[in-house]
Amino acid sequence: MLSLTDKGLRDAAAWEAAGCALPRFDREKMRASTREAPQWVHFGAGNIFKAFQANCAQKLLNDGLLKAGIVAVERSETPEKRASYETHDHLTVLVTLKSDGSVEKTVVGSVAEVDYLLSDGAGGLARLREVFTAPSLQLASFTITEKGYRVSDADLADAPDDAKSYWGRVTALLYARWRAGAAPLAMVSMDNCSHNGDKLRDAVMAFAKGWAARGLVPQGFVEYLEAKVSFPWTMIDKITPAPDADVAAMLRSDGLDLAASVTESGTHIAPFVNAEECEYLVVEDDFPNGRPPLEKTGVLFTDRDTVSRVERMKVCTCLNPLHTALAVTGCLLGYTRMSEEMKDPQLAALARGVGYDEGLPVVTDPGVLSPREFLDAVVNVRIPNPFLPDTPQRIATDTSQKVPIRFGETIKCYIERPGLDASALTCIPLAIAAWLRYLLAVDDEGKPFACSPDPMLETLQAKLAGVTPGKPESASDALLAPILSDKALFAVDLCAAGLAPKIGAMLREMLAGPGAVRKTLKKYLPEG
Length: 528
Known about the structure:
Elements: H1 12-17, E1 20-21, H2 27-36, E2 40-43, H3 47-62, E3 70-74, H4 79-87, E4 92-97, E5 103-108, E6 111-116, H5 125-132, E7 139-142, H6 166-179, E8 185-189, H7 196-213, H8 219-228, E9 229-230, E10 234-237, H9 245-253, E11 261-262, E12 268-269, E13 272-276, E14 280-284, E15 300-302, H10 304-318, H11 320-332, H12 338-341, H13 345-357, H14 371-382, H15 392-395, H16 399-416, H17 427-438, H18 457-463, H19 477-484, H20 487-490, H21 500-510, H22 516-524
Parallel strand pairs: 1-5, 2-3, 2-7, 3-6, 4-13, 7-8, 8-9, 14-15
Antiparallel strand pairs: 4-5, 10-14, 11-12
């Protein structure tokens, strides 16, 4: 068997025989350069980081355009996590699954070290303080999911030196950088959420301003953050599902025994990552201390307005709304692969309707990417990719947090723009009705299923407690009105928009009994 370690990589011929591309740089020199002059620290070393940012850094290292690697930061340390990283010398196998059935395997070795933000032991806060006080540090990037940016009042009670919360410690690291000479820095959210740089800035400033107001830090620290630390916006897009058992089996057949495991908290731990070929990263070019030449790897650098337009194109029109519509309906119809859904005539029609018919009329062309070409790739290549093990259950996670952007913003456009009529929408109301039907946790055959995690799941299920499959009348307009009129949930009052009656009628049709969801989809998507 091949050994995924620095020592094991010395047998380059065996790795190449297994079809794996290897790092073309000296990893020991890379680690030494990182210790001496770190440039890039990344928080949230999950699947997308391993498949995208770490691989971008590897390309630069391979070409001699970068000397230091990435300091990766996990939230907290567990024995399983540390063992997985250290057993494999922080190496990862990136398995790129293409829609034509071909596979590319790359050993990614750009991670110099992995540290743990909430740990006070070795590789914990003290080590990260060394990284953050290095004048050479150019950027701290983040992929921690949208809900990771929340700050609670309880967190704000801690002083900088006593911070125990995630954002308290991140802000304390910035405070250490200010005290060590106030070198500039870019704090770069690369999470899949709207105006992500602002979310990152708000989390940091909540602590900094709170500490300054209590006299725990000088006002100069706040002024430093405002003047010398940037929080650029980004748009990122690359599908990176959880490590798949079939991919692990394929690797074993190639001589790589790289098993995946899942912790009690649901975290996947694996020395490999599977991902699609397509990838997009558009970044506001605001790096006050310089940056690696990531444009050499395909990253697009532009201004904030263009990033916003690209992000809006993707999140509101050309990808995310299709994903959410397919996820909730797919769960109701018993699908476990997104690619299989695109073979379903009604679900494929739903995706096309949400994207082409109802999304494109209100999309703004960002200039750097064509909306129609982007959507064409989504509908014809990316989601139908049969070799990509993505599931509707994964995508249905946190749907309540996604609906305002993925559907609400498009509905707003239909309300506000002359010549458009929100009441003419069909596919988006159908997707919303399917989501409400999904929340009942009973599939189209009448069998119970587990809804994916969502911070509002219990609240919404309580509001729908009287709604019963087989009893369409239980979903009365009066019962649904408090949900459909909630602007926080949908970004728009659907009752005031005139869409509540249509959504309510669609939901009642989906409640008629076993097979009613399918029958309803056929009614509204007759051409399939």
